[in-house]
Design goal:
Maf protein; nucleoside triphosphate diphosphatase activity; 7 strands; cytoplasm; alpha/beta; hydrolase; binds thymidine-5'-triphosphate; dTTP/UTP pyrophosphatase
């Protein structure tokens, strides 16, 4: 059985994979995460997940490497992580009272080649007041998260409805990932 590497600095991805009973190590990719401006959200998350996984695989060719990327999409426009309070405010105001999509791409690279997939989840927000948005930004939760919110944190208070895999919104569609890893002889110790 080859060792599995998670090519991610995201604490959420680490927690989800650990909770699933998978053994792995972490090597953070130094890919410069470039995407074409013309990319659709699904193309963007697949490309970024591939860039992260292939960069780490080049340094660890005897391993199985898992890369992932999450973006929020509103009317097809990609929202990444907000770089400032102003940007977080603009993103959350745009998401207020609307349904957006969260795309997470996953890429597994091994000696046998590369396998990728993405998950799309619809998330509907209640209408938010400017005061709520400002108070939320003051919690500092917005900044390392696509779309400027965390569904697993205080951002849960914004969510009216979700359709799809909750864990994919948090950053990793863990059930599908574990099922896919089974064909690489990587399995959860919980099921052994
Ligand atoms: C929408 C949403 C995103 N997120 C997170 C998941 C991802 O970690 C992050 C999007 O950024 P990513 O670039 O996908 O990931 P990352 O920079 O955190 O980690 P790495 O590239 O090293 O793998 O947003 C939440 O935690 N909760 C949410 O509700």
């Amino acid at each position: 059985m080859k060792p599995l590497i998670l090519a991610s600095a995201s604490p959420r991805r680490k927690d989800l994979l650990e909770q699933a009973g998978i053994s792995f190590s972490i090597v953070v990719s130094d890919a410069n995460e470039q995407i074409d401006e013309q990319f659709t959200p699904e193309e963007a998350v697949l490309s970024l997940a591939e860039q992260k996984a292939t960069t780490v695989f080049e340094q660890h060719p005897q391993s199985i490497v898992l890369g992932s990327d999450t973006v929020v999409s509103l009317d097809g426009e990609i929202l990444g992580k907000p770089a400032s309070e102003q940007e977080a405010f603009r993103m959350l105001r745009a998401l207020s009272g609307r349904t957006h999509q969260v795309f997470t791409g996953v890429c597994i690279v091994s000696e046998e080649g590369m396998e990728s997939f993405y998950e799309e989840v619809d998330v509907s927000f209640y209408p938010l007041t400017d005061e709520e948005i400002t108070a939320y930004i003051n919690t500092q939760e917005a900044f390392d998260k696509a779309g400027g919110y965390g569904i697993q944190g205080v951002g849960s208070l914004f969510v009216e409805r979700i359709s799809g895999d909750y864990f994919s919104v948090v950053g990793l569609p863990v059930s599908k990932v574990v099922r896919t890893l089974a064909s690489y002889q990587v399995s959860s110790h919980l099921f052994r």
